[in-house]
Amino acid sequence: MNNLLETPIEYLKGVGPARGELLRKELDIHKYADLVNLYPNRYIDRTRYYRIKELQNSGTEVQIVGKVINIKTIEQKRGKRLVATFTDGTGEMELVWFQGQKWIRENLKINTPYVIFGKCNYYNGFSMPHPEMELLEEHKQNLRTAMQPIYPSTEKLTQRGVSNKVVMKMMMQLFRETQALFKETLPEKLLQELHLIPKNAALFNIHFPKSQDLLAKAQFRLKFEELFFIQLQLISKNLIRKHKIKGHAFDVIGEHFNDFYQNHLPFELTNAQKRVIKEIRNDMGQPVQMNRLLQGDVGSGKTIVALMCMLIAIDNGYQACLMAPTEILANQHYTGLTELAEPLGLNIKILTGSTKTAERRIIHEELENGSLQIIIGTHALLEDKVQFHNLGLAVIDEQHRFGVEQRSKLWRKNTIPPHVLVMTATPIPRTLAMSLYGDLDISVIDELPPGRKPIKTVHRYDSNRLKVWAFLKEEIAKGRQVYIVYPLIEESDKMDYKDLMDGYESISRDFPLPEYSVSIVHGRMKPADKDAEMERFAKGKTNIMVATTVIEVGVNVPNASVMVIESAERFGLSQLHQLRGRVGRGAEQSFCIMMTGHKLSNDSQTRMETMCRTNDGFEIAEVDLKLRGPGDIMGTQQSGVLNLQIADLVKDRDILSLARQYAIKTLKEDPSLSKPEHAALKHTYLELTKKQNIWNYIS
Ligand code: ADP
Ligand code: MG
């Protein structure tokens, strides 16, 4: 039976060499098994009869019962067409023919009930070109599959006559030849526990559904199966890593950590922070490399967590590093961490592109002899010259800006790799995290420090700018500071740059000296000038900071309480959320004002509404995922993994959780899948790992 499924597709009756070639090229169908796995995109429900008054201009096929009440030929320059008026008592529509008019005219029965079927168009009323028609009486006597499958197709296939009907026929032929004896892939126990229908029945009903109910069961079973095997692979990969990749066991909780925790905490840790530190501490206590993702919304307090983890490394006699994507951010971490760790008397230094040669030499030396305990930096840390004495923990901030390759470069510096903690403020929806980072462990800080007032967010049109400016003046009068951010997609984009400069000029005019002072920061400035200007704003010497998205990551000015985002429709949701996170860091009520033009696309409208509705980064990430699709969010390089056959990460998140839960359970009971009841499971699992190496996208 299994060999039969390996049969090349051209041997299927009705296919042959020419169509075989076409199927291979267009749909990647090489053998019987591939055709069986060509699932319909959708189904037309022939059990449903529409009424004319419920028709919508959605371009889908509908089935209606009614009568033709008159028929006429309309002559136009481009030719004749035959038009019939069709009614079902709830309304009227037109049936239209361009071809075969004579036959229709002679055979169509007026005032007799018909069932018509086809796609509806709307133009001054509904019309259906070339409907399939059947007398109601005959229709009642015919047997048919209730749900008609619509298969994926391409232009070439349609052109060369491989229509949907032809694909349906091939599928029927295949089921006939193979007698639908498809091997079960899941253990019996699992089928029973989850009430899953057998593989056979699922495949049959996905192609020839007998009813809505059976179709739903078939879809559920196949989606579960798909996600289950992905999770099985990711989780077992994680288990293998834990068994195979050695790590430093940090078994001491020593003086620095305890001293800091007992005497120098600047504030009480939130419960989430405590929980996450415990998770990380447990992980690093094992002689296995930690590979953990730390998610926490902007302002959730990841920095102090990072520091405390670094202290554990130091207490165990190791060095720690923190890598940030930009110089500004590295500087800020440096300032923040040295301040926090000041009473501990540690040797902490920073290494970036602009570190002077003399200083650089000292850093290299101290890193190698081990006297430098914490190094903070940018990509500069990855240079070959940088050698650690014994790097025990690498913290990486804002991971999406570092490629996987760069990360492993850091690892290669040691025989035993350091523990890795990746921190991100871009909340990855759980569903995505589960499927993409199934082989990483995840910690989440899901609680903001106390006393934060939710940021009030509003959407204003450009035409209301005067009112917005008046509001800014009120806030500045109260002693607050303001960000005004302009989109700059590429640092070289001339138009954007001009917008920014024009904006800066008019803002300087509207907020004149000496009452107000305005800073500007953008990517064309020298790093030193940028930093100096940031510094002025941070110290409160200027009231307004006009900037590009340079300030997106990391800037921390607690007194800045208003964020104005210009041309907000041009920003993505996660960017808007990141920008908003720049305010709301102090005790005062903060505001985010998104400025846009009047004309907005549906997606932009949704983005504005979402931002106004919620401050919750995870909720925003979910909406973002829906708007953009998962591939976009994670970058193209990882979208391969999302090339799922039937499941949808957004819509099927519940099935995903279930699949994950059962994959974990299965592997816990039988890590090598060697129990007899897991034979089929193991077989499929091995087939999949052989075929697809897409799971290697990370580390
Ligand atoms: P992020 O997660 O965005 O990196 P930070 O670590 O920069 O957040 O913290 C944001 C701000 O909140 C900082 O000013 C920090 O000092 C403060 N903070 C962090 N944790 C707490 C806490 N438990 N209680 C009060 N303030 C905190
Ligand atoms: Mg941070």
Automatic annotation (TrEMBL):
Catalytic activity as recorded in UniProt: Couples ATP hydrolysis with the unwinding of duplex DNA by translocating in the 3'-5' direction; ATP + H2O = ADP + phosphate + H(+)
Pfam families in alphabetical order: DEAD (PF00270), Helicase_C (PF00271), RecG_dom3_C (PF19833), RecG_wedge (PF17191)
UniProt cross-references to InterPro entries, sorted A to Z: ATP-dep_DNA_helicase_RecG (IPR004609), DEAD/DEAH_box_helicase_dom (IPR011545), Helicase_ATP-bd (IPR014001), Helicase_C-like (IPR001650), NA-bd_OB-fold (IPR012340), P-loop_NTPase (IPR027417), RecG/Mfd (IPR047112), RecG_dom3_C (IPR045562)
Hydrolase in keyword set: yes
Enzyme Commission number: 5.6.2.4
Domain Helicase ATP-binding: 283-445
Residues covered by the Helicase C-terminal domain: 464-631
Underlying gene: recG
Function of the protein: Plays a critical role in recombination and DNA repair. Helps process Holliday junction intermediates to mature products by catalyzing branch migration. Has replication fork regression activity, unwinds stalled or blocked replication forks to make a HJ that can be resolved. Has a DNA unwinding activity characteristic of a DNA helicase with 3'-5' polarity.
Parts forming coiled coils: none
GO molecular function term, any single one: helicase activity
Superkingdom of the source species: Bacteria
SUPFAM superfamilies from the UniProt entry: Nucleic acid-binding proteins (SSF50249), P-loop containing nucleoside triphosphate hydrolases (SSF52540)
Keyword field: ATP-binding, DNA damage, DNA recombination, DNA repair, DNA-binding, Helicase, Hydrolase, Isomerase, Nucleotide-binding
PANTHER family listed in its UniProt record: ATP-DEPENDENT DNA HELICASE HOMOLOG RECG, CHLOROPLASTIC
Protein name, entry field: ATP-dependent DNA helicase RecG
Enzyme's top EC category: isomerase
Source organism: Flavobacterium suaedae
UniProt similarity note: Belongs to the helicase family. RecG subfamily.
